[in-house]
Design a protein that fits this description.
Layout: H1 3-14, H2 18-29, H3 36-54, H4 58-72, H5 84-99
Helix pairs in contact: 1-2, 2-3, 3-4, 4-5
């Protein structure tokens, strides 16, 4: 996996350009082997979850986010320089907020942070 492409996906994700992040990572995912393929699939699913939420599809957003957490949980913390544990935790908090029917203005999708 080329670092530049991966980093471009991170930048789009952190700018809340979730559809674009999804597309960038999907291009990489198609030509990548495990274990990086699993990490990418988790990131793609979480990006898609936030995109679906923006379209008003709360049920789909929760489902995709949960699937993404499952994939990311298979990657060690710090994999590809990402604070995986933090992303998993913050995404779970986001799912919990949706489950509690909080107003969208009360919480925001997480960013992906470097480890350390």
């Amino acid at each position: 996996m080329k670092t530049g492409e991966f980093e471009r996906g991170l930048a789009h994700f952190n700018a809340q350009e979730f559809f674009t992040a999804h597309e960038v990572w999907e291009e990489i995912w198609l030509r990548t082997a495990a274990p990086e393929k699993t990490l990418l699939q988790g990131l793609i699913q979480i990006a898609a979850a936030f995109h679906h939420y923006g379209l008003g599809n709360v049920r789909g957003a929760k489902s995709l986010a949960a699937a993404g957490i499952g994939k990311l949980s298979k990657s060690p913390d710090g994999y590809r320089g990402i604070d995986v544990a933090r992303l998993v935790s913050e995404t779970q908090t986001w799912i919990d907020a949706l489950t509690e029917d909080r107003q969208a203005g009360e919480f925001y999708p997480p960013e992906i942070h470097p480890i350390g």
